[in-house]
Amino acid sequence: MSALPASSALSTLPVPTARDEGAAGPGFDSAGFLRVLHGAIDIAGGLRPLVRQLRDQGISRAFFIGSGGEQLLTLPATDLLRRAGGFPVEACLAAQVVLAPPTGLGRSALAVIPSLSGIAPETLALLAFLKARGVTTLALTGEAGSPLALQADHARINPATPETLAESVLLQTLGLALALLAETGRIDDADPLTEELQRLPALLVAAKQAYEPEAARRAATLRDEPYHIVTGAGSVWAVAEHFGMRQLEQRLRVRSRPVHAADFFHGALELVEPGVSIFLLKGEDAARPLSDRVERFAYRYTDKLWVLDAARVELPGLSPRLRGLISPVILASLLERLCAHLEALRATRTTNAPTTGAKNT
Predict the structure, then answer these.
(1) DSSP of 160-194, one letter per residue?
(2) What InterPro entries does the entry give (predicted)?
(3) Would 30-187 and 193-348 be classified into the same CATH topology?
């Protein structure tokens, strides 16, 4: 068996493969969920020495490069780094990078590559391309034996599942962003924030269980909806787009139209009328007023406005500073419960339905 890269870390918290029906509803394994989140937080808390090492080696900028849902989940971290300044950062799509690489993607750059499986063709083509250019690579993956984990310069492995992928990537990239900001002197509270994160997994289990009745009711209401507009702003926009693309479209085969709350009034508002379903995600950051504006408008014109607000989720003892950083994690966790119920209900409806022959690639 090939060895992992010299700089690699494997979460020692294995994830069970069974998907049982626990206290929080269909498909929810609280023990597995806790292991994935603690694994992600442990990795996040251990990234500072690596960041220091990379800066000593001349790394002066970072690119977060991925495909599909994994790429979207890096956006809150890249946005945090951009707003703080001090360390140039860019978010890129893997397939486009190999065709039209951005300026600065060379020997002084770090490429962060999130991929749950570590085997996607686009990801491996990207890795080969980056190696040829001398770019230092950091893989965030769920499979220790995958080509990505084995061939990247540095690898962090957290054995997540598709249901826990969002929290895993969001927390690891948040930890990396905090480490970069700390090492460049932009913040002085990275360590206390990482320590505070240790309380999050248990609190999120309780939050998911508290949301379970609402998730079941909402799923029953939305079961036959053919189309949704999904919107949000700030750090939760990435979760809104991920929910539309990865959950509604890919997982549930439901049409969606993700639109940023700042762009809602530049096209999407013309589609809003009674009967049009709108998912609105609200975070606890500076962009919240953009979502508030959409809510005030949509409430007047459709009877199907569904609001999920991170500020209304009880997470006792967490500081406002941390809550503002983890809104995407909170909402992704609750949306997973909604999707589990929707999947179960729609499966019973479509079990005997004829297939179109279309194949998800």
Answers:
(1) --TTTHHHHHHHHHHHHHHHHHHHTTS-S-HHHHH
(2) SIS_dom (IPR001347), SIS_dom_sf (IPR046348)
(3) yes
Q: Could you state, in order of their start, the residue ranges of all structural domains in the chain? A: 30-187, 193-348
pLDDT at 357 over 90: no
> Span 30-187: which CATH code?
3.40.50.10490
CA-nearest of 145, 141, 171 to 159 is 141
Tokens at residue 70, please?
A: 């994994």
Beta strands in 202-312 (DSSP E): 227-232, 255-260, 277-282, 304-309
Q: Using one digit for the tens of pLDDT, what is the confidence trace for 36-86? A: 999 999 999 999 999 999 999 999 999 999 999 999 999 999 999 999 988
User: To which residue do tokens 């085997």 refer?
Assistant: 119
Token pair 């994690």 is found at 329
CA distance 100 to 350: 42
What residues contact 157, with CB distance under 8 A and at least 6 apart? 4, 8, 9, 10, 11, 141, 142, 143, 144, 149
Per-residue pLDDT tens digits for 276-293: 999 999 999 999 999 999
What distance in Å separates the CA atoms of residue 77 and residue 61, rounded to the nearest whole number?
Answer: 14
Task: Using alpha carbons, select from 57, 62, 69 the residue that is nearest to residue 248.
Answer: 69
- Taking Cα atoms as reference points, which of 14, 326, 338, 331 lies closest to residue 175? 326
Q: Give the architecture-level CATH label for domain 193-348.
A: 3-Layer(aba) Sandwich (3.40)
Averaged pLDDT of the chain: 90
The owner of tokens 């000593």 is: 56
Q: Sign (positive/negative) of CA torsion 342, 306, 277, 240? A: negative
